[in-house]
Write a structure and sequence with these properties.
261 residues; alpha+beta; 3-stranded antiparallel β-sheet; 7 helices; globular
Length: 261
């Protein structure tokens, strides 16, 4: 009988699910991020609400609650049980979701259907996936750096961050955590995509900006977008950047962004 109880205990323990990050810690961090995003939203006459709820699947999702006026970002409780989701990943995921409302052009468009009827764009004036990633590392990351602490003696990262923004080491670690989380989340949907390195460049060059609802760049392309954003010291109105010596450069990669599409 005792042996059976021991076996049962082991089986129960083996099926327990432990959170990768404490939900309350994540909620507190997202609240801090919300506070520094609010002035940006106010400048665009937007209100952005946050909610947390169980949705059966891990993820974070953005939509208009009131079109072009009130945005809603929903974080599923299941997100905080994903193995690779730590506070750095939470920060970058939150920054990405805010980027859908605050990231600017290019915006989501309706995929052409060939029908004489025009489908309603539920995501009007919401930035495309690639632009939301770019916003996350260019605008949001420097503002949330103080909410995270990161030290590293990795010579590759130290070398890469020379001459880049002061938040580079913290942000590059957040990018890595977020990318690992995205890979794990997608695998749960039987969609298997990964990246080879933080510093690899996607060979694919798009013939049009990826701007349809739910149209994601490849994982390597997304990582490249966020990493290249670390070379942006000031973002200009047209989406180009000033680098560390004040030169105007286009940092959005051609794997998702097509100039003058």
């Amino acid at each position: 009988m005792l042996k059976k109880l021991i076996i049962l205990f082991i089986l129960i323990q083996g099926h327990q699910v432990f959170a990768a990050v404490e939900k309350q810690q994540a909620v507190d961090l997202i609240s801090k991020i919300s506070s520094v995003m609010k002035p940006l939203a106010d400048n665009q006459d937007l209100e952005i609400k946050i909610e947390f709820k169980s949705m059966n699947n891990p993820g974070a999702f953005s939509k208009w609650e009131k079109r072009k006026k009130i945005g809603l970002i929903t974080f599923s409780d299941e997100l905080f049980y994903v193995e690779n989701v730590d506070l750095y990943a939470v920060a970058m995921i939150a920054c990405h979701e805010y980027g859908h409302f605050l990231g600017g052009a290019p915006y989501v468009e309706v995929m052409p259907t060939g029908s004489i009827f025009t489908a309603r764009n539920k995501f009007e004036k919401m930035s495309v996936e690639g632009q939301a990633d770019f916003f996350a590392s260019t605008i949001c990351a420097p503002l949330v750096e103080s909410f995270l602490t990161e030290t590293t003696d990795d010579p590759i990262l130290l070398s890469f961050c020379e001459g880049k923004r002061s938040d580079c080491l913290t942000t590059i670690n957040a990018i890595r955590s977020a990318a690992d989380s995205f890979v794990e989340i997608l695998a749960g949907y039987n969609y298997h995509d990964t990246y080879t390195s933080l510093f690899d460049v996607s060979r694919f060059q798009t013939d049009r900006t990826l701007n349809y609802a739910g149209e994601y760049p490849t994982m390597q392309c997304r990582v490249q977008t966020m990493v290249q954003g670390l070379s942006c010291f000031e973002i200009l109105e047209d989406g180009t950047c000033l680098n560390e010596i004040g030169q105007t450069i286009e940092l959005r990669p051609k794997c998702w962004f097509k100039e003058n599409r």
